[in-house]
Predict the structure.
Amino acid sequence: MSQESDQPEFPALSDAELRETLDLMATAVASMSDRIDALTVAADRQIKVSTEARIAAFAAKDQTDPKRHGEALAKTLNAGLGQVATDMAEIVRRLALQTDRTLGALAKSEDDRSSALREVFERERKAERLNRRLPWFGLGALVVALAMTVALPRFMAGNASMCAVLGASWTTTTTGVDACVFYRE
């Protein structure tokens, strides 16, 4: 090494070696340039992805903001549920009216049922009394029938018009007694 410079001395290269060295250096520079270009493309993609991620993060922050969602929910509820609540109140009112009518109808039905049961009970009592009296009515009818069997022909035969109804003739006997007589032909 020489004292004048800090650099070591290298032997001088021949032209062919110099060309080969320059070619190698050019190939290395070109390869490095290609790599730098690829890294630039990758860096651009990374920047684009990080920008999109950042935009998405801000959008997600807005989307998950409880205050914003609360306000939107309050607006929706006030707009939509107000009419629904009014409609439901009307339905409840109508159901209450219908329930009152139904209860009234049930009470009337129960009264009608009680009245019908009372009527059936009264009819059964009357039928029971009639069943107890029926043998006496039958006996009375039998007595009347027997009495009529004896008395009716006498009564009918004792009157001229009734005698004619029977198909007999009203005549006076030799002793002077009127009689209803059936003649044979």
